[in-house]
Design a protein that fits this description.
Blueprint (H helix, E strand, L loop, with lengths): L1 E7 L5 H19 L2 E7 L3 H7 L5 H9 L2 E4 L16 H12 L3 E4 L28 E4 L35
Parallel strand pairs: 1-2, 1-3
Antiparallel strand pairs: 4-5
Length: about 170
């Protein structure tokens, strides 16, 4: 398999995490005989610092030409004084819209306070230290694509697909 993968390391811990993810993908490529080309691009605070825009046109164009996009964390408090459309998160929302994405997959991390101190299952001698549960949260900003919006045809087969389509808005209590 030959893939061109856009790398959007982002801000904060993003570069560290995406670097490790790239190392894993390199190992997978070597083990499986694949050819992965990695294209580092700017998004978020690093893009604002370098170009003045949270999502440079060159980054968007390269992502649309790629077979996959690996995205790190985006955001930095030093940009909080900017208007919302100029902050790092604006670039994240723009790239999600352009690629047809709308949700985050967030695996939980047990903290000492939330971790049970005794076994949760009768057959388990230990308390759990991890979970196989993951939370999927929809991007609830007004910048998300409208219901039924599809990614560009070139990327449609690479896009995440949801199990069920929800077109109704949740009721507010």
């Amino acid at each position: 398999m030959k893939l061109k993968i856009a790398i959007l390391a982002g801000d904060g811990i993003g570069p560290e995490v995406t670097n490790e993810a790239v190392n894993i993908l390199k190992a997978v490529a070597e083990f499986g005989g694949h050819d992965f080309t990695f294209v580092p691009l700017l998004l978020g605070g690093v893009a604002i610092t370098a170009t003045g825009s949270p999502l440079p046109t060159a980054t968007l164009d390269a992502c649309l030409e790629s077979d996959a996009v690996l995205l790190g964390a985006v955001g930095d408090k030093k940009f909080d004084a900017l208007s919302p459309d100029k902050r790092p998160e604006a670039g994240l929302l723009q790239i999600r819209h352009a690629l047809g994405g709308y949700a985050n997959l967030r695996p939980p991390s047990p903290t000492p306070r939330s971790r049970p101190t005794r076994p949760c299952a009768p057959m388990s001698p230990r308390a759990p230290t991890s979970s196989s549960f993951a939370s999927c949260s929809a991007d609830s900003t007004s910048a998300r694509p409208a219901s039924g919006t599809r990614p560009p045809a070139r990327l449609e087969h690479h896009a995440l697909h949801q199990g069920r389509s929800h077109t109704r808005r949740p009721r507010r209590l």
